[in-house]
Design a protein that fits this description.
This protein is mainly alpha-helical. It is built from four helices and no strands. The model has no long low-confidence stretch (mean pLDDT 85).
Length: 120
């Protein structure tokens, strides 16, 4: 069995690993703040505000996912474009899920309020 110890780990890999571990709280903080902003936008009365971050995510995925390595006439261009769009749209999924969850909770709350008003 091979275990990672300081004796058999390359120094450059250890430095890269330490740098990556140091950046994780910052990355998680950015994701957390993004989800908080999405929650705040999704719970507003104006429904279209909740679509700002998912739309921005889709636009960024199109800009980042365009396969610049292949010419548009090549055979693998569409396959690589599809793979890149799927990969770069992974952050869009939680944003849309959070939007629909917030809208469902608001709809449920409004229904309960209407029932309470009718009971009076």
């Amino acid at each position: 069995m091979f275990f990672l110890t300081s004796a058999n780990v390359d120094a450059a890999y250890a430095a890269l690993l330490a740098e990556t571990v140091a950046k994780q709280p910052l990355i998680l903080g950015v994701y957390g703040m993004t989800m908080l902003v999405q929650f705040l936008l999704s719970t507003r009365k104006n429904r279209s505000l909740g679509w700002i971050l998912p739309a921005l995510s889709v636009v960024m995925s199109i800009l980042n996912g365009w396969p610049s390595a292949l010419p548009p006439e090549s055979a693998g261009f569409l396959w690589q474009l599809l793979q890149n769009l799927l990969l770069y749209n992974v952050p869009t999924i939680p944003l849309v899920a959070l939007y629909f969850a917030c809208r469902w909770l608001i709809q449920k709350k409004n229904t309960v309020e209407k029932m309470n008003i009718q009971d009076l």
